[in-house]
Design brief:
Elements lengths: L2 H47 L2 H23 L5 H16 L5 H19 L8 H13 L4
Length: 144
Amino acid sequence: MNKAEDSVSGMGGEYFAAMKVVEELAGAYVEQTEEGLQNALALTQKAELSSGLEKERLMKKEVFRLVHDIKGQGATFGYPLMTDIGNKLCRYIESRNEFTPEAFERVRRHLCLLRRILENKVTDETSEEAGKILDEMKEIETLG
């Protein structure tokens, strides 16, 4: 074996070890994301029952942070729609001066879409389920 062959064969084991770590992290991402979505829904409900600065703090700090984390890691772990829809939700939360009942409904529907992506393991943006999710996303964007 020459140096180049030694280098490639040596990397093979490292590559497979790295891929195993990525798979384990992807499993952890799914679990953490499911928990994050549950927390975001609970905080959204709490915010809806709150008023004034507490409502704004819950939505613009707490819910935003959870969604931002989910969005940031989605594509890394094979869920590009999590990143796309999470980004749209983050931008929507940031843009709100006030959280009306319609705004809360829109946030909840975004969160439910994110949950659906995980539940159905939608990793292919061209799949039939992805198409349905994207169609629903368009519908959600017409809400207040």
